[in-house]
Amino acid sequence: MTTSTAPARAEKTAGNRLRRKRTDAKGSQGSTGLRGDSIETTATSRIAVTAVLALTAVYFLFPLWWLFVAATKDAGYTFAGSPLWFSNFDLFGNIGDLFAYKDGIFAVWMANSALYSIVGAGLGTLIAVSTGYALAKYEFRGKGVLFGVVLGAVLIPKVLFTLPLFLMFSATGIVNTYLAVLLPSIVSPFGVYLGRIFAASSVPDEVIEAARLDGANEGRIFFGVSLKMMAPALVTIFLFQFVEIWNNFLLPSQVLISENLRPVTVGLVSWNALVQAGQIERHMVIIGAFVAVVPLIVAFLSLQRFWRSGLAAGAIK
């Protein structure tokens, strides 16, 4: 009886194993088909996204490449030969001519742009971050209304403030001074908005409470603890404001009269007007535009580690 039961059990066990294998095979085929579709969809999406990004990169880098190639050509060959490849290379000679023109007025314009951008962006970042920090970490009456005003100011184009600022500065007597450009540069509603987001996401309330329990006052907490935790956010806001001030043209062109106070943007536009009158060669404007772009590229490349992490922190919030 025992010997007859054993083969039956073995046969039953073998049958169960065979059915399990068939079931697993069907399941694996179904799952493989789903994975294949998903892999195909993912690959198609990646190709499409990569193509769009490549076209966007070409769209933005094409003018810079043309500017670089044109800046390397000798003055008499700016528009000769291929516009997208090098010929008659004389980049360093062109740069020398640029900084020697009119006793080095271009160097003065570059220094002015650096002054306006660094000082304005530095003070503007500190004000924006401190204001955003207060909106994020403190409770006070009118907080929601104040933040609503900040958001409303973000939506208003800064061009609309040019005429009121000019009239205001004319009444106070600061037209044609450094303050006429620096004072509007340190106010950035968008920087305040970013500062609030970064403060809420980068500085935990527990850290602030622990610092208070240790006896630190609010100023020490902000400058000694919170600012260090918000370092990537500071760099991000600084770069936004630095680029905006460096590229600013309309306000400086209205409030500055002296040639020695102009930023490089206003100076290059004035040179371009002289080109039409035949008083200066066009290659001076081209090489000047190329040199004016270099500080922005250097700033982004040298600080990319900080501003990329700062943008990520803001995106998480």
Describe the structure.
With 317 residues, this protein is mainly α. Helix content is 79%, strand content 0%. It has 13 helices and no strands. Helix 2 (91-100) packs across helix 13 (282-316), helix 10 runs antiparallel to helix 13 and helix 12 packs antiparallel against helix 13.
What would a concise description of this structure say?
The chain is mainly α.
Q: H/E element string?
A: HHHHHHHHHHHHH
Number of β-strand runs: 0
Report the C-alpha radius of gyration, rounded: 31 Å
> Structural class of the secondary structure composition?
mainly alpha
Number of helices: 13
| Quaternary state of the chains | single chain
Mean pLDDT: 82
Point out poorly predicted stretches.
1-12, 25-34
Helix content: over 70%
- Backbone shape: globular
Distance between the termini: 74 Å
Biggest sheet layout = none
Name the beta content range.
Answer: under 5%
